[in-house]
Amino acid sequence: MGDISEQDERRRRLAAWKASGRTLWRGSADRPLGERLAALAADAPSVHDLDEWTDVYGDGVVAELESRVADLLGFPAAAFFPTGTMAQQVALRCWAGRTGNATVALHPLAHPEVHEGGALSVVSGLRTVHPTSAPRLPTAGEIHAADEPFGTLMLELPLRDAGFVLPTWDELVAVVAAARERDAVVHFDGARLWECVTHFGRPLKEIAGLADSVYVSFYKSLDGMSGAMLVGPSAVVEEARVWRHRYGGQLFQQYPAALSALLGIERELPRLPSYVAHARVVATALAEAFGAPARGTEGEPDAPWFRVHPRTPHTHQFQVWLPYDAAVLNEAAVRQAEETGVTLFRRWFDSGAGPPGVAVAEVTVGSAGLEWTAQDVRRAVGEFMERVVAENGSAD
Q: Where do the coiled-coil regions begin and end (predicted)?
């Protein structure tokens, strides 16, 4: 029954989000199958000749995508993978063989440690160590001070579960140099690397060029269906292709994912800096609204404790924390969408490691969010909190 209930709740959320006239972001998975397929068929001719034969085991449009991404990131070779989880396991396994050290240094909040079921050790035979547990990327000093040798340093840029946070450019350069001084190679988990350009103030090639290999995703920021790319030296990428086959990633045809990735590169990639800039407007307005007195009063706000993190977002995504249970906030969020046609927050989650009764939401600002003014955000917060308080009462 629990699975059925969750499926019903998901359908309710999807219906509310789709019907909303105003939302900060529309995800590619928010649309019905027919709508998604029709859009792909209508748009794909702008990025690829549809009279060409379909891809077979990675040629055709898939090979074109590989060449395009290798050039974008400034690497000699690229290999398309069905998932980022597979791409990174393969990359780290290849580097372990070359360095002779199967230990990977990474953050405990990095994707392989939190979201992959221990696959690095269980599937790939690798071992992990953590240079820091602070909610940020490690510093050069922490890399130098690591207790034992490691063959690869993996840096997730941005570090999603810490709030989509990034180091400064100088800090990143220093961390990479520190790893090299320890005879380690550097791999970037760049699932969201595309949107780091604004924060670093450097072009993609210069950012990616700090690393020995990089993985990027196509569905997280570029509105693609699925898929990932691993870029690096030619010899490493060729070995990665062999392991991709062994891991079950040599798919017969992948043209829908490849076409949607090319569309994302063509259409969404150039717009990401505008999303990052507007995310800062939205974050500032959220902080102002949550800090304001409750409606109709001159006293305390409805959420006397809240966090917008980072206060100035590093990318077009950031976190909001509120002192309410996730179930209360989720009901208020979906009711607001259903009753007003405004989707401010999509999903809230219990904080996990934090205190009870505190929940966190991830906020993404995309093309739809560019229409929001700061006043729109403040008004939406007021409407949201009215529903939260009606459901739960003011926070303690």
A: none
Report the DSSP beta bridge partners of residue 229.
80, 216
Q: Where are the domains of the chain?
A: 2-25+271-392, 55-252
Distances (CA, A) of 81 to 53, 86, 254, 279, 315: 20, 7, 10, 30, 25
Identify the three-state secondary structure at position 102.
Answer: coil
Give the domain 55-252 fold.
Aspartate Aminotransferase; domain 2 (3.40.640)
Q: Burial code of 366-387, b = ≥16 C-beta within 10 A, e = fewer?
A: bbbbeebeeebbebbbebbbbb
Is the distance from CB of 297 to CB of 327 less than 8 angstroms?
no
Supply the angle between the helices 326-340 and 374-392 in degrees, to the nearest 10.
120
Q: Give strand pairing partners of 359.
A: 322, 350
Say what the pTM is.
0.94
Each residue's pLDDT tens digit, 352-382: 767 788 999 999 999 999 999 999 999 999 9
* CATH 2.30.29.50 assigned to 2-25+271-392: no
